[in-house]
Amino acid sequence: MRTTVQDVARAAGVSVSTVSRALTGGSVSPATREAVVAVAHRLGYQPNRAARGLITGRTGNLGLIVPDLRNPFFADVAKGVTARARAVDCGVFISDTDEDPVAELEAIATLRHNTDGILLCSPRAKDAELLAAADPQNTVLLHRRVPGLSSVVADIVDGTRQAVQHLRALGHRRIAYVSGPEDSWATRQRLAGLATFDGDDLEILPIGSVAPTFDGGVLAGDLVLAAPATAVLAYNDLVAMGLLHRLAARGAVVPDRLSVVGYDDVSLAGMSHPPLTSVSVPKDRAGAIGLDLLLGRAGSMTAAQGAEVILPTTLVVRASSGEPPA
Amino acid sequence: MRTTVQDVARAAGVSVSTVSRALTGGSVSPATREAVVAVAHRLGYQPNRAARGLITGRTGNLGLIVPDLRNPFFADVAKGVTARARAVDCGVFISDTDEDPVAELEAIATLRHNTDGILLCSPRAKDAELLAAADPQNTVLLHRRVPGLSSVVADIVDGTRQAVQHLRALGHRRIAYVSGPEDSWATRQRLAGLATFDGDDLEILPIGSVAPTFDGGVLAGDLVLAAPATAVLAYNDLVAMGLLHRLAARGAVVPDRLSVVGYDDVSLAGMSHPPLTSVSVPKDRAGAIGLDLLLGRAGSMTAAQGAEVILPTTLVVRASSGEPPA
DNA sequence: ATGAAAGCGCTAACAG
DNA sequence: CTGTTAGCGCTTTCAT
């Protein structure tokens, strides 16, 4: 059997309530506290979080819901969350919903009762579904905004603008854009960024929507080559990697024939050939801030008050972008 | 306040114990059960797992400890675990220890008290440390074997043999091997596989140990080019990707000048240029089986009995391996 | 500053 | 088959 407060109390010659106070910071005489702490340590006492949660109403755990851990973007988010959780001694339940919106809602329903809060990465579900399933008081949406819920997002509009400005500065005037899932928040933000350049001295060529995956990028490769563009901005890095792959297979040298810019700056971006220029979004920081919001540790802001945090994006220039062909 | 058994009992006009029985499968009259279930559903009742765990002694949760979620290998493992966990309605606490052996041991200490069992990916910590920190009764080691603990591993020795045989069949006679962390179980297994070929008609050229990362592979690239090898087997896919990158930069065409074979077959393997031939290890299946072991769902085997599962490996041939230069 | 006692929500005896 | 009762381990009144 595990050691309980009872054991510690007996060994220290005090009552259980004194042990509890000594360990959680109640008013106890310094001498008593020291003695209790020593005994607790000697016995290897670890409070039973479930029992504590039963009475305090707080579990000390929170839930993280992501569509796919294999996607490096969400791996980064999870990394940020777990790192911060470890620092504040908070448990993290993870739920990989395998891109299934139904599983997503189920996960919300399960976790909201067994945690102090939920960090939710949900690119697919509809706004109304989320609003119906989630408790605004202790849910923080990551990398998506839904009115009525707290959220931590990156400034996608500005990031998109930076990417285009970079290409324009290099001399590009016709830039293809490979879009992702229609009707998603992330897609709309990117389009809003592109709309900034309307009526300017450059042309944005929409190539259509593809799956936000490597295969989606491969598919887009041929479409891009058929367009009169000298550069292409991809929905995300995975799509950009697929593009790079297909362009290489078709003999189109990057960036000589075509410049390629990705989005998200996942860890793979530096490993591609050539290394990928990409808009960097603070994935791990978003996760950490979301956690702080949930735990009321983010200064004055809390999830309960409907916080909306926007983090800056920065363009990371690597070798996949250069001057257009002469 | 959340709805409790009390609420359900009152609304259904029965006692709390009847509600409990009706919902957990005790002996209740069909009519009563139906009524209770209906009321519970109508009230949106969700049992408080903490309270249940307090009395049953089982939390319904388990812990997964990995060194780095960003590493696609562990992302795959986590994916396998969470998928199976969802199927059996079991919560998963995740702990990313950031490659820090101390954090690893801390995570074990924390989780072993708050879960029904631990799935442990620990390539770095020493055998003795693990034995001291972990409870053999409900710990399953993933992708590593330590006498005294249950484990689920892949047949690395055989996988290594398959890789070398593939290269030999292509005509290679001098094969470089880029090793990973010295003194790790995975490294020893690979070396054991290579030792199989001693005194054969081919030569294995050890290139030394590098970090099991992309950068480690980049580093190894030049060393490999300086060796009289026509093929190289890398410690893992990340190293192989780094190798590919460096070889391309040095103008060495793969597989014309040099064949490259990776290990693990992570999702990136198909995205490299050229796509990487790699030894496939069942990462997600290992995770799922480990979970079953912990929950006593793996047929006759259980973690408590010290199960040792070995899963088969298969070579996946892609474009990075071919005949040696004439 | 400390102890006794009352529960948190649930399940498992124990009666009926 | 069902209701009553006693806790699981912990925190938190309420006394002292």
Q: Please name the two chains that share the biggest interface, counting residues whose Cβ lies under 8 Å from a Cβ on the partner chain.
A: A-B, 45 and 45 residues
Say which CATH homologous superfamily of the largest domain in chain A is assigned: Response regulator
Strand content of chain A: 15-25%
Number of helices of chain A: 12
Shape of chain A: elongated
Largest sheet of chain A: 6 strands, parallel
Mean pLDDT of chain A, rounded to whole units? 94
- SSE ordering of chain A: HHHHEHEHEHEEHEHEHEHEEHEE
- The total tally of domains of chain A equals 3
CATH topology of the largest domain in chain A: Rossmann fold
Alpha-carbon distance between the two ends of chain A: 77 Å
Biggest sheet strand order of chain A reads 2-1-3-4-5-11
Which oligomeric state applies?
homodimer
As residue ranges, the low-confidence spans of chain A are none
* Fraction of helical residues of chain A: 40-55%
The class by helix and strand makeup of chain A works out as alpha/beta
CATH class of the largest domain in chain A: Alpha Beta
**The CATH architecture of the largest domain in chain A:** 3-Layer(aba) Sandwich
The number of E-state strands of chain A comes to 12
